[in-house]
Design a protein that fits this description.
CATH architecture of the largest domain: 2-Layer Sandwich
Radius of gyration: 21 Å
CATH class of the largest domain: Alpha Beta
Helix content: 25-40%
Distance between the termini: 23 Å
CATH topology of the largest domain: Alpha-Beta Plaits
Number of strands: 11
Length: 280
């Protein structure tokens, strides 16, 4: 993701080439601009070269799985694991309906929500970290360990959002504070039926919702305003996407900055016109 992006070369809407960031891992000027361009959906510049920070592939991967936690307890457990010195590299929570759609055999017989925590490290360190994590989380109830091959397959499946495929239901991507996500879900369920997959230890949620005239945008964004965060409409019909703002509407200050940034890079709006907002 953008956190691993060190530098870029690009061409702006003014047909000017520019470089931002660097090619080595150090404090470099322009790293903020690099990430802004990378997250602009092609509305600021055309990237011609990228430099990423990469890490060695871990020798072994394991997954600690907790069974049957509520959304609130799952987010609490994931937050606790994230705060521990065990280098937990991912944390997700899937409700039962989504667990049933997983392809991995290790999870097909599970008829409850699962909370999964990924450990990646050298093989000689992994058993000890697993034991420490198991002891630290024992108060959260039943858990078991998934080995290397099954873990890799499981996380690859989640990377592809596999539990959300095979459905034409509308999909939202919600980001908020780690400790707010479960409460947001409780509130939004007063307005609509949703299935939810928590990622980023609870800070990111993927929502599957039933058919709605506006894809639930009004209720979702009004409810989210209480907690803070961003809601992006990922999947809906072309008709709905033409009527609803796909990206989170900006407040006046952020919109002013965004307009100025667009004008600086692409004053004639030749790059992906209206891709994110009508004024871009």
């Amino acid at each position: 993701g953008r956190d691993h992006l060190l530098g870029i070369s690009a061409v702006s809407g003014r047909a000017q080439t520019f470089n931002s960031g660097g090619r080595v891992l150090k404090d470099v000027a322009g790293i903020g601009l690099t990430r802004a361009v990378a997250g602009s959906w092609g509305t600021l510049a055309v990237i011609t070269r990228v430099t990423f920070k990469v890490k060695p592939k871990p020798e072994e991967t394991a997954t600690v799985v907790l069974i049957g936690l509520s959304n609130e307890l799952a987010v609490e457990a994931m937050g606790a694991a994230l705060a521990m010195p065990f280098d937990v590299t991912a944390g997700v929570h899937l409700e039962t309906s989504l667990v049933k759609r997983l392809q991995q055999e290790d999870f097909q017989s599970v008829a409850n929500p699962i909370t999964a925590l990924r450990l990646e490290t050298f093989s000689k360190f992994l058993p000890r970290r697993i034991e420490f994590l198991k002891k630290a989380l024992k108060t959260y109830g039943e858990l078991y360990i998934v080995g290397n091959d099954a873990s890799i397959a499981f996380w690859n499946e989640l990377q592809q959002l596999s539990p959300m495929l095979g459905s034409d239901r509308q999909v939202w991507r919600i980001s908020t504070l780690l400790n707010k996500g479960a409460h947001f879900i409780n509130d939004i369920r007063r307005h609509m039926e949703v299935e939810v997959y928590f990622d980023w230890f609870g800070g990111l949620m993927w929502l599957l919702i039933s058919e709605a005239v506006d894809a639930g945008a009004a209720d979702i964004r009004r409810t989210l305003a209480t907690y803070g965060g961003h809601a992006t409409l990922i999947r809906a019909t072309d008709k709905i996407r033409s009527q609803v703002s796909v990206f989170q509407p900006l407040d006046s200050s952020t919109e002013h900055i965004t307009r100025n940034l667009k004008h600086a890079f692409d004053p004639d709006a030749v790059l992906n016109r209206a891709r994110m907002y009508t004024y871009l």
